[in-house]
Amino acid sequence: MRAEGAKQAARKAIREADRAEAEAWSIRMEGFGGPAQPSPTIGQCLNGGLGWLEVECNRCKNRASLPLDAIRRPRDTPIWKLEAALKCRSCRQGRHAPLVHMIKLTEQREITPYFWVHPDEER
Ligand SMILES: [Zn+2]
């Protein structure tokens, strides 16, 4: 049982370290606008309990909260790499889409992404 306890303690320590790193990054992004690099990985954010990434479209200023566990990337992908792949569907025209930028990480969804993510269903 001692080994099991040690394992649990180790997992807890990792989780706390992951959370600290995700929080520090989030504070840097929200408070100072970056730099986005280096950043924690998707896995670290999820493990640390900050599973939602808030982003804002540079053009229409719509914001959305995206669930990190639904993003189809390896868990060891640093989250700054996601920024270039994210597109605001409201503004997208053909292959051209304005850039989005990341605001912060949150524990829970703070903004309904309905308008931003599913503009096609709006009408
Ligand atoms: Zn937009």
Brief digest:
With 123 residues, the chain is of the alpha+beta class. A 3-stranded antiparallel sheet has the order 2-1-3.
How do the strands and helices of this protein lay out in sequence?
Elements: H1 2-32, H2 42-47, E1 52-57, E2 63-67, E3 100-106, H3 114-117
Bound molecules: zinc ion.
Zinc ion binds next to loops.
Could you please describe the fold and organization of this structure?
This protein has 123 residues and is of the alpha+beta class. The protein has one domain. Helix content is 33%, strand content 15%. It has three helices and three strands; from the N terminus they run ααβββα. It has helices at 2-32, 42-47, 114-117; strands at 52-57, 63-67, 100-106. It has a three-stranded antiparallel beta sheet with strand order 2-1-3. The longest helix is centred in the N-terminal third of the chain and has 31 residues, at 2-32. Residues 117-123 have low confidence and may be disordered. Bound molecules: zinc ion. Zinc ion (ZN) binds next to loops.
